[in-house]
Design brief:
two-stranded antiparallel ribbon, alpha+beta, DNA/RNA_pol_sf
Length: 79
Amino acid sequence: MYLQVQIREEDQDDCRFLWRDETQEICKYRLTRVCFGLTCSPFLAVSTVRVHARRNKTTAPRTASEVLCNMYVDDLATS
């Protein structure tokens, strides 16, 4: 789920890293998606899902309710 959440462009520099092979110069990379290992990743993923559930309360009320009431971290527990 994390890789489906885009990082805002103004925050991508905070997720920058450097890579270098022995034969090449240093390359700069920036993450554009939320990745595993960031302390904020669970919050960003869950809050994104909750925002979309709230936005779609009128078009899909049952689905929105299930997501908002039965989601724990990245698991949806319903029966």
